[in-house]
Amino acid sequence: MMACASIVSSGSSQVANSGSEQDVQALINQRKLKRMLSNRESARRSRMRKQKHMDDLKAQVSQLQKENSQILIALNITTQHYGGVEAENSLLRTQLTELSSRLESLSELAYFMGGSSCNSLQTPDGFTAPWSSMVVNQLPIVASADRFQDCCYANL
């Protein structure tokens, strides 16, 4: 009976071992399944973060393109305004040269006619000071060659 008991006892240990191995295998499978589900969830969150980052980048690209377009429009307007101001400055420089030449001619004419000079109308920087000799509703002074000749021949 002893031999039979040892077989039974070794058989029950094999059954116990086999039950224990099944429990361990079930535990391992359960951990694998839990890790697999955790990895899936982590991958899903990662994809969501990546998608959100892509959406944010697309929104930023759109915003920057809009700003770029507005800056280009402002640049074009400013460039056109600059061109207009440059043209106006060129015209004003031409007018200044013409008026300076006229003033010099009138000063010479006034000197020959009466001996006085209009140098007192000029400022130290060479520009005229029209406010110092401005008279309301004054007609422009026009030099006539005939009048200059009359003046010069009368003095002879």
Q: What can you see in these coordinates?
A:
Helices cover 79% and strands 0% of the residues. It has two helices and no strands. With 156 residues, it is mostly helical.
List descriptors.
mainly alpha; about 160 residues
Intertermini distance: 172 Å
Mean pLDDT metric: 78
Give the SSE order as H and E letters.
HH
Mass-distribution shape: rod-shaped
The number of distinct β-strands equals 0
Q: Roughly how many Å is the radius of gyration?
A: 52 Å
Structure class: mainly alpha
Q: Which stretches are low in confidence, meaning pLDDT under 50 for 5 or more residues running?
A: 1-15, 131-139
Proportion of beta-strand residues: under 5%
Largest sheet: none
The total of helices stands at: 2
Query: Helical residue percent?
Result: over 70%
Brief rundown of the structure:
This protein is mainly α and 156 residues long.
